[in-house]
Amino acid sequence: MSEATTLEGCLGGVGREVRAILERALDDRDLTEGEGVTLLGATGDDLRALTLVADTLRRRQTGDAVGYVVNRNINFTNACGKACRFCAFARGHRSEQAYFLPMDEVVRRAVEAERLGATEVCVQAGLAPGMSPTLYAEACRAIRRAAPALHLHAFSPEEIKYGAGLARVPVRAFLEELKDAGLGSLPGTSAEILDDAVRARIAPTRITTAEWIEVVTSAHAIGLPTTSTIMFGHVESELERVRHLLLLRSIQRETRGFTELVPLSFVHDEAPMTLRHSVPGLRAGPTGHDVVRLFAVARLALGRDIAHLQASWVKEGLREAQSLLACGADDLGGTLMNESISTSAGSGHGQLVTPATLRRVIRDAGRAPVQRDTRYGVLHAFSADRAAVDAPEPLDDVHDPEATFGTYASLTLDPRFRFHLPTVDAEADA
Questions:
Q1: Per the count of CB atoms within 10 A, which of 28, 141, 293, 374 is most buried?
Q2: How many CA atoms are closer than 13 Å to the CA of 335, on its beta-carbon side?
Q3: Distance between CA atoms of residues 395 and 139, nearest Å
Q4: CA end-to-end span of the chain, whole Å?
Q5: Model-level pTM?
Q6: Contacts for 114 with CB less than 8 Å, ≥ 6 apart
């Protein structure tokens, strides 16, 4: 059956307004703000048609391959001078659960990741009081010396703004120094919803929308790509979700610097604004259909400009992430090895998924697995055959990741890494 016949059969049962929007999308017309809001309310036949169109556009734009990257997260400190209401990871610097990894431990984790087949380390952390302004560059140089083949994907826009402030230099100059030190790309986190009224409700001291844009566009201008993200399912409206997506589209058309979009469901269980703050209108995370609609609309809104749409198994679990491969997604993210931020907020999906497991999930969805690098270059293309037998990889032999890599809970209680302002100052200045 042809694509046109399949789509005609599906679109035949939908409402007139939704059908017109989906037909425009199939004709490669830009999704408008109002159209996006309409689609984020789709249910029943309208929703089924939306997901089919998103899947069709995904096939046109990226093909049937599904990517993943072998990587490791290194969150070198949870000490943070800010108190974002959605963040259960951060600890105040006086907390007995605040930690700070010394540089040799950060490097050890990077080297271990490379030995296990990783091509990337993702380094992010809290905004620790007392940090030296040179620490970010020193971390880049130390990892680069010890593991030169690893791609260093590091430092959120919030961290870049903080580091530039500590160094008393413009954001672009700070980024240039980090690039010279070995930084390869930035995670586009700390975006949440790019609307300052929303940000004031969930994180009043957070980086502003304009500051986030300044960091990512400055990175793009000097050849540092970034991801892009949206955290949804808390207090934002459907209109604010759409405006966020269309702002990302506008930035991408100017800079071409985003490698992907990663929608992030709000994990509410242990979030401070769930437990300790009164935030009017707060939801307990997105519903299943909210997630499906967001992914499908993101594909329609952004697919021609940001081709790759990543489903986070950490946020959604592997089963839901697999189902999103039929709703516009074409990537399952990384193996991670360590996961602290979502876990601390109450996510129960673990801290490691092995390459073999990712390939099994992708093949079960009828797609072909591809191990990629950070910039979506193909490192190894695998058969889509569900019966295929792949060569074993070192990370596939890790059967107890918590015992192998440790946990966030154990890290916060490890006396070797207890955060102390004088110790951090001395290490940073050494």
A1: 293
A2: 29
A3: 25
A4: 67
A5: 0.94
A6: 147, 149, 150
| Band of pLDDT at residue 424, cut at 50, 70 and 90 | very low
Both tokens of 34, joined, read 């109002």
DSSP code for 178: H
Specify the 3-state DSSP secondary structure of 351.
coil
- Give the pairing type, strands 226-232 and 120-123: unpaired
Residues in the chain, overall count: 430
Are the beta carbons of 71 and 113 closer than 8 angstroms?
Answer: yes
Q: Which two tokens stand for residue 238?
A: 């459907």
CA distances from 17 to 22, 36, 64, 314 (A): 9, 12, 29, 35
Give the tens place of pLDDT for each residue, 310-349: 999 999 999 999 999 999 999 999 999 988 777 776 667 7
More confident residue, 424 or 240: 240
**Which bin fits 281, alpha (ψ -120 to 50), beta or left (φ > 0)?**
left
Three-class SS state of 309: strand
Average pLDDT of the residues in 267-272: 83
Among 359, 356, 312, which residue's Cα sits nearest to residue 333? 312
**Measured between alpha carbons, how far is residue 313 from residues 119, 169, 258 in Å?**
19, 37, 21
Angle at 208 between CA 226 and CA 336, to 5 degrees: 40
| Residue 283 three-state SS | coil
User: Mutual orientation of helices 313-324 and 355-364 as an angle, nearest 10°?
Assistant: 30
Closest listed residue to residue 25, CA positions, set 41, 14, 16, 36: 36
pLDDT digits (tens, 9 = 90+) for 271-294: 888 877 778 899 999 999 999 999
Instruction: Decide if 164 contacts 174 (C-beta within 8 A).
Output: yes
Which pair of tokens denotes residue 321? Answer: 């992430």
φ/ψ (deg, to 5) at 226 = -135, 160
Question: In Å, how far are 4, 7, 8, 15, 258 from 12, measured between CA atoms?
Answer: 12, 8, 6, 9, 36
